[in-house]
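$ ./design --mode recover --in tokens.txt
reading tokens...
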């Protein structure tokens, strides 16, 4: 799921990140900060650090479905 977030977002809220990763907000924030992401102190938005090494990613449709449903609900 982390790889999907990495490829799909430039910025994302801490709350949404925690939801997608199945963690509480503190754990999710600590995890992504270790991956080089940056948190905006006043906005509580995370800036995604894109990986420079390109690797082949095989997406599992079962992991993509929750992300698709969430984005769909945001737009409607």
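writing sequence...
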């Amino acid at each position: 799921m982390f790889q999907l977030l990495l490829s799909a977002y430039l910025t994302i809220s801490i709350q949404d990140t925690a939801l997608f990763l199945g963690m509480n907000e503190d754990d999710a924030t600590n995890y992504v900060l270790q991956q080089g992401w940056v948190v905006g102190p006043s906005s509580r938005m995370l800036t995604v650090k894109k990986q420079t090494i390109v690797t082949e990613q095989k997406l599992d449709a079962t992991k993509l479905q929750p992300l698709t449903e969430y984005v769909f609900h945001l737009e409607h």
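exit 0
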